[in-house]
Write a structure and sequence with these properties.
Length: about 270
């Protein structure tokens, strides 16, 4: 069971409230967010300089760790990432559970197009089809069982079935929020790079002829910043879904009992 103390700052379950909370969280943890953006930019730049794709796993780990610290701060009611070396309860389980979810998404994203004859298409068309399936399956699966890895942070031993039961409640709005947080930054990055290319700017390479491409670097920072904010929003949505599902409810008859009243975004971070 959850400790009742973690529910003392339960937020309204609304898209605007969560978006406002995400903005407030970034403002309060700006240095931490900037470090994450800088780390991801450095990893991408290293790949571009070395001509490889060796940092993908590192970027994935950085993203998962970023989500962990955000959700840990939300569940503990702090609203601020203070000490990264403390409060690591559930970190290992959080990583492998999210990795398992991601592998399932990849399996469905590739397996479904192959099962319906997508392998007969051209390589680029097949790749776009797989990406489209993944773009739908990832937020859907996270909406259904995304609270499973987070429960361990709060000290709960609830399993996958309990997470699925939580996910079924409010599935559609949660899916739309997660889709917006995960996919819209990616779409925005594609549009930005396409626009830069149409204006004859080389936006796909940070280093050009041994020199730093400032246009490509600026686009990289913007895209990584948008992606990091989207991940922050997604992390908060899932953390609040867990809190709203597990918080004590008022009994029938109107008496509050031990139920916790919802607070505004400003009160959460005051």
């Amino acid at each position: 069971m959850f400790n009742g103390d973690i529910f003392h700052q339960k937020a309204r379950d609304g898209r605007g409230a969560m978006l406002g909370e995400s903005i407030s969280f970034v403002r309060r943890n700006l240095s931490f967010v900037c470090v994450v953006v800088a780390a991801n930019c450095a990893l991408v730049a290293f790949d571009d300089y070395s001509g490889g794709k060796k940092s993908n796993s590192a970027q994935f780990f950085v993203s998962l760790s970023f989500g962990f610290f955000i959700q840990n701060a939300i569940l503990n009611g702090d609203g601020k990432v203070s000490n990264l070396t403390s409060g690591m309860r559930g970190f290992g389980g959080y990583i492998w559970k999210n990795l398992l979810i991601f592998l399932v998404v990849i399996g469905i994203g590739i397996g479904a197009p192959v099962a319906f004859g997508g392998a007969s298409l051209s390589k680029n068309t097949f790749l776009l089809l797989c990406l489209a399936v993944i773009a739908m399956i990832l937020p859907l699966l996270l909406a259904l069982v995304g609270t499973w890895p987070i429960a361990g942070i709060a000290g709960s031993k609830s399993g996958l079935s309990a997470a699925f039961n939580r996910g079924k409640r409010g599935l559609v709005p949660t899916f739309l929020r997660l889709f917006a947080g995960l996919i819209l930054p990616f779409i925005g990055a594609l549009i930005l790079m396409t626009a830069a290319t149409s204006m004859s700017y080389a936006a796909d390479s940070i280093f050009s002829d041994g020199k730093l491409n400032l246009i490509a670097l600026a686009i990289l920072v913007i895209c990584q910043g948008a992606s990091t904010f989207g991940l922050c929003y997604v992390s908060i949505v899932l953390a609040r879904k867990l809190l709203n599902s597990e918080a004590p409810r008022a009994p029938i008859g109107g008496r509050q009992g031990n139920a916790v009243a919802a607070t505004s975004v400003s009160e959460i971070f005051e």
